[in-house]
Design goal:
Layout lengths: L5 H17 L6 H7 L4 H5 L5 H24 L17 H7 L1 H11 L6 H26 L5 H24 L2 H23 L8
Helix pairs in contact: 1-4, 1-6, 4-6, 4-7, 7-8, 8-9
């Protein structure tokens, strides 16, 4: 991410929440400027257009959420941590508390037409990193898994994440909880079977 001045960084932080709540089309640079305590022409001194500001906010959101994912997967250094507690265990709470995640998911599902390529590339890279990290964690806990099974379970995990992202946007908490439990049950049993574990477990 390009280095931003303190004023530009503050504008990005404010715009992140604004875009997360309203989306691209319903967001107003004038409103963002007012929230930042400046006039609209002053905002243009930092960002040349709405697209320019939106791109900066997208980069900020991707960096924020990727860092969060990296930190969550780092807990697999503890043998007592189960794979089903990674990322998905507090994803619903994260969605409520993180404007960056709300912005990222809203933007991924409803990208501005003119920025669709940039949004898709950023979000796909974000998911791919999550896929890689899950693979590392899975291999560490189940070293007997062969490469083919590992690839399949990495893809299945991203399918699980995609499903939960949809539920966060369109569903409700009880449905989300049922879905995450059911999907982890299926994925966990499949991993255990492939790894030759006696009792299905993701711990």
């Amino acid at each position: 991410m390009k280095v931003l001045s303190p004023s530009a960084g503050r504008i990005c932080d404010i715009a992140l929440v604004h875009f997360a709540e309203r989306g691209y089309d319903a967001s107003s640079l004038n409103d963002i400027a007012v929230l930042a305590g400046m006039r609209k022409p002053s905002l243009y001194a930092h960002f040349k257009s709405k697209d320019d500001l939106f791109s900066a906010v997208l980069e900020l959101a991707l960096i924020t959420e990727r860092q969060y994912v990296e930190e969550r997967f780092a807990v697999t250094a503890s043998a007592s941590v189960g794979l089903n507690t990674l990322y998905t265990d507090d994803l619903a709470q994260r969605y409520e508390s993180s404007a960056a995640l709300r912005f990222l998911l809203r933007t991924a599902f409803f990208p501005p037409a003119e920025l669709k390529g940039q949004v898709s590339a950023g979000f796909e890279a974000y998911l791919e990193r999550m896929r890689e990290l899950f693979g590392v964690s899975l291999k560490a806990k189940y070293p007997t898994l062969n490469a083919t099974d590992l690839e399949i379970f990495q893809d299945a995990y991203i399918g699980l994440i995609d499903s939960l992202h949809v539920e966060l946007i369109y569903g409700n908490e009880p449905t989300y909880r049922r879905r995450v439990a059911a999907l982890w049950r299926i994925l966990g049993d499949s991993i255990a079977l492939a790894a030759g574990t006696v009792a299905p477990s993701l711990a």
